[in-house]
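Students often ask why inverse folding is considered easier than folding. One informal answer: many sequences map to the same fold, so there is more than one right answer. In these notes we will look at a single instance of the problem. The structure comes first.
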């Protein structure tokens, strides 16, 4: 015959009451410590915001932008600028941006005066000529000069009066914000681009893609998936490649060139 203990019954009753009371405030999972239940709502907006924040933290994977071509040149300017030929050495200088070293233009008025109307400030990569390539670099405009605030990228450079260049001018017109050709005469546009370039004091990413067989030229500004402008022209094939400005001031860094 068993006997119940009144004290044990009272204790068990109190524990049962407390357990029931706590159900509304915490959930206990077997094998895990109890945690306070906090209402959580996951929406598509939450996920999109989180993904966007993660993307902002990720550096651009330039190898994924290479169109399958090998890396043939890379320069972050930490060892100097000996890999470059400039039209005016006095206009270019190496300087620190925090802990980083960059290659920039220190004046707008260059000592170099081209034979035909075309950019003054040009730095070409030494000893490399390509027909097909992907050029990617970082650039920061260091002086607000208004509607034609720009940077340039040069390619298929044959000589001082025969080459293509991209003019990323703030406000487009026939002399600004276009893909240009210089062919023994003053530069002329190959495009009728109407898109603004949102220059500010921050760093931006530029990509230029050339397919000489198709004659295609594509230019990207920050958005590496959608071209800012594009053109088709087969006037020039293999040539030198470079960076610079028509007559403005910029800093450049992290230049990568993929090509054949």
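Output (designed amino acids):
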């Amino acid at each position: 015959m068993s006997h119940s203990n009144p004290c044990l019954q009272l204790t068990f009753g109190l524990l049962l009451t407390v357990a029931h009371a706590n159900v509304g405030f915490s959930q206990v999972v077997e094998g895990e410590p109890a945690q306070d239940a906090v209402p959580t709502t996951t929406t598509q907006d939450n996920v999109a915001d989180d993904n966007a924040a993660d993307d902002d933290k990720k550096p651009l994977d330039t190898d994924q932008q290479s169109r399958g071509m090998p890396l043939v040149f890379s320069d972050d300017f930490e060892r100097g600028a000996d890999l470059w030929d400039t039209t005016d050495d006095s206009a270019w200088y190496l300087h620190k941006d925090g802990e980083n070293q960059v290659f920039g233009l220190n004046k707008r008025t260059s000592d170099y005066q081209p034979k035909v109307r075309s950019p003054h400030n040009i730095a070409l990569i030494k000893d490399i000529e390509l027909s097909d390539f992907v050029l990617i670099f970082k650039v920061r405009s260091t002086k607000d000069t208004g509607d034609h605030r720009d940077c340039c990228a040069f390619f298929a450079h044959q000589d001082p009066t025969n080459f293509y260049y991209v003019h990323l001018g703030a406000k487009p017109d026939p002399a600004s914000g276009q893909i240009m050709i210089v062919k023994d005469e003053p530069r002329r546009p190959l495009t009728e681009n109407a898109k603004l370039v949102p220059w500010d004091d921050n760093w931006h990413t530029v990509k230029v893609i050339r397919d000489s067989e198709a004659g295609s030229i594509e230019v990207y500004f920050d958005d590496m998936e959608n071209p800012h402008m594009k053109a088709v022209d087969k006037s020039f094939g293999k040539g030198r490649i470079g960076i610079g400005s028509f007559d403005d001031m910029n800093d450049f860094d992290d230049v990568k060139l993929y090509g054949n």
